[in-house]
Amino acid sequence: MAQPSIQELTVHVANKLSNKILIVHCRSKDDDLGALVVEIGAEMSWRFEVNAMGSTLFWCNLAVEDKRLSFEAYGGEGEPYYGYFNVYDDGVYGKNFVTNKKLMGRWRRIWVP
């Protein structure tokens, strides 16, 4: 019996903010990458294997100053795969071989006492 094929993917999150440090925290059901500091003009990336059922999901929470943003970094089989996410002052944009710039989420302000 043949082994099910496992697809390995890479996701990149780049800080394109104007003079702001970005905090990125990405996770799946099984893997938590922890909160990482992404300096201005830098990026972080990770590789993962899509499970045989095609149900792997990854999502990320972003923070900069008093703003937060959450987005789905990988939505599983049947969803478009965006391997690159560029974080700008107005939100995060996904990029793949078909779509050059798709808005994935906008910043929202949080109240800080």
Automatic annotation (TrEMBL):
The lineage of its organism: Eukaryota, Viridiplantae, Streptophyta, Embryophyta, Tracheophyta. This is S-protein homolog. It comes from the Eukaryota. It is found in: Secreted. One of its GO terms (cellular component) is extracellular region. Transmembrane segments: none annotated. One of its GO terms (biological process) is rejection of self pollen. Pfam families: Self-incomp_S1. Belongs to the plant self-incompatibility (S1) protein family. Keywords: Secreted, Self-incompatibility, Signal.
